[in-house]
Amino acid sequence: MSKLRLSVLDQSPVPAGSTPAQALRNSISLAQHVESLGFNRFWMSEHHAMDTLACSAPEIVLARIGGETSTIRIGSGGIMLPHYTPLKVAESFRTLHALYPGRVDLGIGRAPGGGPVEATALRRNRNVPQTDDFLDQLSELLAFLNHEFPAAHPFSRIKVSPEMPGSPDIWLLGSSMWSASTAAEFGLPYAFAHFFSPEPTRAALQQYRHEFTPNGALGDHIRTAPESMAAVGVICAETQAEADRLYSSVKLLQLRIRQGDRSPIASPEDALRELPNYPQQAEPGEFPRYVAGTPDVVKAALLKMSEALHLRELVVNTIVHDHEARLRSYTLLAEAFA
User: Is pTM, for the whole model, over 0.70?
Assistant: First the structure.
């Protein structure tokens, strides 16, 4: 197996006692830090109306992060396409591509990134029943980005500005068998959200590889073979006890979310006091969705997972209460993988 690449998914977590504005500044700091450590990509997620996570407009934050970095790939993890028109997404990411050519990834998702009320508020037309036209949206987005509309199509005359050579690299994000089949059908690279949905990880990645069909509509970024990665939660600390202490904030976050509680990230001290109030549940899935431990423990777990799933790249998501502890976690991880 070739050397494992590591990338970063940042959700701009908001620590209790801090502010969303500080969380976004922390994201800029984190991007600069992981670039200096040699990570491959820095992706930002899209979530709406949450006290927990601050980034609701990744394309805006990425414009700033691109200017604060110079080599690391930047991208969305992801843009929730059902909320937008394909042309608007194409224009936004062509703008990022013009600013930072050769560095931009456009990760596309289908989930709402919030609850049903937020999804309704994001809809432009609320007077007709909501239909699932994601496949049509995705086809249209690819056509806009790669100039693939038939000559007779009225949109073939639209020039997606700013026009320049190349295009953002397009990924499909998902956490289900449906997304795996869709990525394979469109010939897109596929990023599986293991930290969110750990049970179907192996089956989804296997199905994606089995069904993959190259797609000429990808233009400059056509894949002749499947390309996939998985996003996994990681907390790395000098001792197992410290990693477990930091992880308590994430455990509480996961339990709260199941009950519809979107509060900011609790401190380990508050989390350890509150956790006994919740029934403990067994972790589902073949691999842990969050790996917490010393550098050696984390490295062994990530290598085991990547080798079992035939992955050459993992996307690491780290949520802790203290930003300095988050920076330190990525430093220890980078040192472990040299």
Answer: yes
